[in-house]
Amino acid sequence: MRHCDAPRNKGCSDLAAAPPATRDGHVWLAHNNDLGASARDQLTVTRLRVENEPEILAVTVGGWFISIGMNRAGLALTGNQLNANDSRVGIPRLLMVRELLAQNTLEAALRAALHPTRASSYNNILSSRDGKIVNVEGSATAAALTWSGESGGALAHTNHYLDETMWRFEADLAYLAMSETRCTRAFDYARRYRGKIDFDICARFVRDHVFAPWSVCKHAGQSVTVFSAILDVTDAKMWLAAGNPCQNDFALLDF
Asked: Distance between CA 255 and CA 247 in Å, rounded?
């Protein structure tokens, strides 16, 4: 889970799709966020307006730490917590998330994600309304990039390293099975619905219970799904559901 470093309180499941994987040619993101159940009361929707930066619309913890978001420049950020074994003194990843969403272009956001003095890294999924998505699977000292154009338009990720060049950085081997079940399901959706992904497919994904209790929509354990988000990056729209999306409706937010 982004912004929660307790090893067993993490969990995020992501499906990201750009043309030609989407039905309408838009960029669609689906994200479930897992934390301890008490975190539900700390989640807020926050707008950040800073001079000379694009306005940011984000889901935050207590109004401070950004979990996911999008900005008026047409960028969006979702992603997953990773536990790497090379963390060091440097720029905290919590602050880097804010910096990523302060950029005006995908290229600038990517440069920020790869800042050479970062202390660690999340798996950052960067998207732009012009149809590009890049998955930045990072640690403090290395990163692997996957572009939507290299994978038929659709990407998926959860909470462990997927690129074999990054496996050596995995610091939480005991958690792999719990992450792999959700990741397998995310890739099932990416393959099965390629060319058809839209709001309805994203909503179906975030409500998925296959492999319960380690499912995309998680109800039991030290972490549960505390919010769910669907983003249409092309039209700058975000739908949010508090708690488990199978039990709660989505509300539309936009600029």
From this structure: 26
Nearest CA among 186, 148, 145, 191 for reference residue 26:
148
Rounded alpha-carbon distances, angstroms, from residue 32 to 50, 186, 209: 28, 11, 12
In angstroms, how far apart are the furthest CA atoms of the chain? 46
Would you give per-residue pLDDT tens digits along the chain (255 residues)? 444 444 445 689 999 999 999 999 999 999 999 999 999 999 999 999 999 999 999 999 888 889 999 999 999 999 999 999 999 999 999 999 999 999 999 999 999 999 999 999 999 999 999 999 999 999 999 999 999 999 999 999 999 999 999 999 999 888 898 999 999 999 999 999 999 999 999 999 999 999 999 999 999 988 999 999 999 999 999 999 999 999 999 999 988
All structural domains of the chain = 7-254 (3.60.60.10)
Integer Cα distance of 112 and 103 in angstroms: 9
CB atoms inside a 10 Å sphere around CB 9: 17
∠ CA 185-140-161, nearest 5°, is 20
Nearest to 155 by CA among 186, 131, 180, 197: 186
- Would you call 248 exposed, middle or buried from its count of C-beta atoms within 10 A (0-12, 13-18, 19+)? middle
How would DSSP label each residue in 183-243?
HHHHHHHHHHTTTTBSHHHHHHHHT--TTTTSSSS--SSS-EEEEEEEEETTTTEEEEEES
CA dist 8 and 223 (Å) reads 7
CA 8 to chain centre: 18
Element containing residue 109 per DSSP (H, E)? helix 106-113
